[in-house]
Specification:
319 residues; alpha+beta; six-stranded antiparallel sheet; two-stranded antiparallel ribbon; globular
Amino acid sequence: MLRMWSGISSAMGSSDLGALRSYKSLMWRGHTARFAPSIASQLRRPNVELMTDHILRFDLRSWLLLATLGLHVHAASSSGSSHSAKQVHFEPEQIIAFASKVEKTLADRGARVAIIARMGRPLSELPEGMHFTHVAFAMYFETSTPDGRKLPGYTIYNLYQQDNHPDVSELVQDFPVDFFADVAQLEAGIIILSPHLQMRLQEVIASPVYKALHNPQYSVIANPFTLGRQNCTEFVLDVIHAAIYHTSDIQVIKANEKAFFVAQSVHVNPFKLLLGSLFSAEVSTSDQVGQPVTATFEKLGEYLLKYDAGSSVITVMPD
């Protein structure tokens, strides 16, 4: 029997991992959620239920906190590009409501493809110039039910670190509830792209080029101008340039990134950065020359506001 989203929410009573395991079990059985009519009306689809029969990734893993070295570069689990949860900071119903609001915000703006970011660590623990810790694509989709209904929603296209090998990444699709499951703060950054760039990104993400641009050698502070390492934000940047220039040639992509994209300097004591790279697999400086730089959501936003006419950057907060 299908239950409404409110029914799922009412079953949750605490923020402990047991509640989330119960929630995962409910979702696995194929429950549905009724979203606001906005998704249907703005995207010109009938107002239907959104299928949420996906597997939530609430598996546990240890989170390596580099602050033990005095290094404020956070690399694993909810802080960066991992899909495993170490600690849950909010009630499940809060996460559900916030994820729903993010989807509604995307739909209100008619977004077919957008860039989305989350806060995996408190702002006080992040280096200067960095606010969000994980960046991905959100893409509109429709699922057909056995009775012929069309169910709208958004899929998140991520580059995540592997649980047992934090210096290795993989491409994973999940959903907004998964994406925000273990954040430190309920806040989302969203870049709404121009319709033309959205169309091109849809084509790239659906093509072999998307996977071909993935470099599994991960570093949380990957240099976006070199090929040795890659993090989630650099991957998003590479895919964007593949869409803009109609190319899968990584040399062409990197040449244009060097010419037009302004990276974020990593403001960390060099000695602490060296210690981090020695003791943590997901921190590498092998692709850095001189002052370490990396791609961030904030710099992506600045870049697209400048070069993608019609784009906008918004922040979503809980009600």
